[in-house]
Design goal:
Length: 179
């Protein structure tokens, strides 16, 4: 399965790097392909290293203004013109999406993917990996959106919140009929 992962390129502490590495190793050992922003920095590097070391493939989609940070030994690397093209390519090349910890770029990617799903522009499973409770506030906000009628479909049909990588991967594999 080609699994797109949206996440930070920042250097982060063990609260985030250890679970990210564990999830990456699960992906690689499972024979999955990581589709990601292509960066060889920070948490993106941690995940790419983990997938590659465990035997998985790497498909990166970088963007022109970040191309200098692109991983040089990915199995495939595409350089998009801009962030909009990058997001479209990431979605096109993936069978499922996992949103890990990140900043405004990750939040932008997450909300666009969920908006597209809400409007039926894709039906791919989306998992929000809530490492160390990072997305507790966002989950609460999404629940409020559902409760107050802002979502045209149940939150459970839009996104699955996973506490850890094992739960995230199990949900994706079940959604794809691999279990």
């Amino acid at each position: 399965m080609n699994i797109c992962v949206f996440l930070s390129a920042a250097d982060l502490d063990d609260r985030y790097t250890v679970p990210a590495r564990e999830f990456a190793e699960l992906l690689g050992r499972g024979g999955h392909t990581l589709v990601w922003g292509g960066s060889d920095r920070g948490l993106m590097k941690v995940v790419a290293d983990g997938v590659q070391t465990a035997g998985g493939r790497l498909v990166g989609v970088s963007v022109e203004f970040l191309a200098a940070s692109a991983r040089t030994n990915a199995d495939e690397m595409v350089i998009a013109r801009d962030l909009a093209e990058r997001k479209a390519l990431l979605l096109e090349k993936s069978d499922a999406i996992v949103i890990m910890v990140g900043g405004t770029g990750t939040l932008d990617e997450a909300t666009e993917i969920l908006e597209l799903k809400k409007h039926g522009r894709h039906t791919k499973p989306v998992v929000l990996l809530n490492t160390a409770g990072f997305y507790d506030g966002l989950r609460e906000q999404f629940q409020r959106m559902e409760d107050e009628g802002f979502l045209p479909l149940p939150l459970t049909e839009l996104v699955f919140f996973a506490k850890d990588g094992v739960g995230a991967l199990a949900y994706l594999e079940e959604s794809a009929g691999l279990q």
